């Protein structure tokens, strides 16, 4: 299942100046990392964002969001933002920055 490369490029442009930025193909899509921690990703043409358990319920109440569930069990702390909510760069940036803010609270992953 391919992912939206145009959306991936827009996310790269938001994150590329962040320290320890990286990306990895996962879940049949692509994910973006800071200090080894997953921040967000793209599955097909939707964005998944890591916002943490504290922000999870509030994020699910926002328009055009849903639980992130690939296996029948939703991942708490992650939400899927439907592509129709990402038309403007401002909307995309807002979601990515929510994820960056959360991930900055996590310890860096050690490199092997």
Short description:
With 112 residues, the protein is α+β, with helices and mostly antiparallel strands. The chain is built from three helices and six strands; from the N terminus they run H-E-E-E-E-H-E-E-H.
How many DSSP helices? 3
Written as H for each helix and E for each strand, in order along the chain, the element string is HEEEEHEEH
Order of strands, widest sheet: 1-2-3-4-6-5
What's the alpha carbon Rg, rounded to whole Å? 13 Å
CATH top level assignment: Alpha Beta
CATH architecture: Alpha-Beta Complex
Mean pLDDT: 93
Q: Major sheet, described briefly? A: 6 strands, antiparallel
Write the CATH fold name. Answer: Aspartate Aminotransferase, domain 1
Give the total of domains: 1
- Helical fraction equals 25-40%
- Which overall shape is indicated by the principal axes computed on the Cα atoms? globular
N- to C-terminal distance: 30 Å
- Total strands: 6
Query: What structural category arises from helix and sheet content?
Result: alpha+beta
- Sheet-strand content, in percent, reads 25-35%
As residue ranges, the low-confidence spans are none
